[in-house]
From TrEMBL:
Belongs to the LysR transcriptional regulatory family. Gene3D superfamilies: Periplasmic binding protein-like II, Winged helix-like DNA-binding domain superfamily/Winged helix DNA-binding domain. Keywords: DNA-binding, Transcription, Transcription regulation. Residues 1-58 form the HTH lysR-type domain. InterPro entries: LysR_HTH_N, LysR_subst-bd, WH-like_DNA-bd_sf, WH_DNA-bd_sf. GO terms for cellular component: protein-DNA complex. It holds the Pfam family HTH_1. GO terms for molecular function: DNA binding; DNA-binding transcription factor activity. This is LysR family transcriptional regulator. The keyword 4Fe-4S does not apply.
Length: 230
């Protein structure tokens, strides 16, 4: 049981909705569900009963709620009255893609939580294009995305690393039996790709149409995208 789980439980209990709590906390709904489930596992009880259109507290949830309120109030009081606190505080809003949110952000969030306890990170999952626009409008403070370009007007971009782009097929697929899969091979099969406008799809389309790289270039292990921050 940790403070984040208690905070999430408290907001779901107040709003009686996982969806509304996720929106208020700037979490993905799956994250809110996972935090409540983790709290239930830690306590060994069910805290919410799902209903059509919302949820309600179970008797165990009703008993926990006043304790959660007292604990969170004490935490706020301790923060406000701690002498000599230092470091950044407030909220840092980060716009990032769903892939980076799922696979790259968890250790970043853990690091910031321990290094800067007064700083709250709010994640805003979006497409790369939406993140660019949010940065220009000032609705997010930092953007993390994967793409080749770095010359975006009005944005200061720094490369943080590279992400591989690989072709994946079932073990029984004919491409899986080849020692090397080329872009020419990929043109002969149906490809499951992200939605139009997604950065990974743009790179894949450039490869398959010859817009950036010759048709003979190997797709397996041959493509990567810089991981950038703006």
């Amino acid at each position: 049981m940790d403070l984040r789980q208690l905070t999430t439980f408290h907001r779901v209990a107040a709003l009686l909705s996982f969806t509304r709590a996720a929106a208020e906390l700037n979490y993905a709904q799956s994250s809110v569900t996972a935090q409540v489930k983790g709290l239930e596992l830690a306590l060994g009880v069910q805290l919410f009963e799902r209903l059509r259109g919302g949820v309600r507290l179970t008797p165990a949830g009703e008993r926990l709620l006043p304790y959660a309120e007292r604990i969170l109030a004490l935490v706020d009081e301790a923060r406000e009255n701690t002498v000599g606190r230092s470091g950044p505080s407030g909220t840092l809003t980060v716009g990032t893609t769903e892939c980076l949110t799922s696979y790259r952000m968890p250790p970043v969030l853990e690091f910031f939580h321990h290094r800067y306890p007064e700083l709250r990170l709010a994640l805003r999952p979006a497409t790369t294009g939406e993140t660019h626009e949010a940065l220009r409008q000032g609705s997010v403070d930092v953007g993390l995305f994967t793409e080749v370009r770095s010359d975006h007007e009005g944005l200061c971009v720094e490369v943080l690393g590279r992400e591989p782009l690989v072709a994946v097929a079932s073990a029984g697929h004919r491409l899986a039996r080849l020692p090397e899969v080329t872009t020419e091979d990929l043109r002969t099969v149906q490809v499951l790709a992200p939605e139009p406008g997604a950065c990974y799809r743009t790179l894949l389309e450039e490869e398959l149409t010859g817009g950036r790289v010759g048709a003979g270039r190997a797709a397996r292990g041959g493509l990567s995208r810089p991981w950038r921050a703006a």
